[in-house]
Amino acid sequence: MIRETSRRRHAVRAVLIGATLVLAAEPMACQRAPRPRRSQPATVSQTVGDARLTITYNRPVARGRTLFGGIVRWGDTWCPGADEATALETTADLMFGGQRLPQGKYTIWAVPGESEWQLIFSNAVKVWHVPYPGADQDRMRVKLTPQKGPHMESLAFYFPMSDLRAATLRLHWGETFVEVPIEVP
Fold first, then answer.
1. Three-state secondary-structure class, residue 157
2. Same structural domain, 135 and 73
3. For 81, left (φ over 0), alpha (ψ -120 to 50), or beta?
4. Are 167 and 104 in a shared domain?
5. Residue 7 — very low, low, confident or very high, per pLDDT cuts 50/70/90?
6. Over 70: is that where the pLDDT of 31 sits?
7. Is the dihedral of CA 20, 21, 22, 27 positive or negative?
8. Which of 9, 71, 75, 172 could form a disulfide with 177 if both were Cys (CB 3.0 to 4.6 A apart)?
């Protein structure tokens, strides 16, 4: 009887020690540095007139894949970025491709085609890059012509031209890019 009680005490002690070690290790697990994302976060900003235009996105990498007409199918609505939907904020009204985009926050989507793209500015903010929030959330659509250029391994938004009253926004991935003319209204 004494021997059995001693065994139980040892078993209970072993369980308590094990539970203590697990609970003590848990906060350390939470303190580990986060893993780097495969699609690195990026932000690009440009002043156009009095407006500050900022695009925040995550940069997917081509990694030898066929991009347009491949992983991004022709005619499908696609978010140019990864993880959180690509966000655009403007501090004043601007004209994108001849259409007025009021000051505010939007997400950017695209419908790529072999000879024509549509760039969509959506009112749906703080959404994931899939699924597309729907046409009922569209603020506006701009038609663009895709062009060929030097290979860009990671998707990029940048401004190859800017001056006091106008700029050009370029979306570039692989050997394909589209440009959106921006003007102060």
1. strand
2. yes
3. left
4. yes
5. low
6. no
7. positive
8. 172
pLDDT tens sequence across 148-165: 999 999 999 999 999 999
105 and 87 in contact (C-beta within 8 Å)?
yes
Kindly state whether residues 176 and 127 are assigned to the same domain. yes
- How many CB atoms neighbour CB 168 within 10 A? 14
Whether 139 contacts 121, CB under 8 Å: yes
Q: The tokens of 107 are what?
A: 């997400």
Closest CA to 61 of 153, 158, 175, 177: 153
Q: What is the residue type of 48?
A: V
Q: pTM here?
A: 0.79
> 40: which 2 tokens?
């690195």
Q: Contact at 8 Å (CB) between 61 and 38?
A: yes
CA–CA separation, 31 and 159 (whole Å): 38
What does the pLDDT read at residue 21? 44
Range of the domain at 1: 1-32
**CB-based contacts of 118, cutoff 8 Å, min separation 6:** 110, 111, 141, 142, 143, 144
7: helix, strand or coil: helix
Distance separating alpha carbons of residues 107 and 121, to the nearest angstrom: 6
**120 and 84 co-located in one domain:** yes
Q: How many domains does the chain have?
A: 2
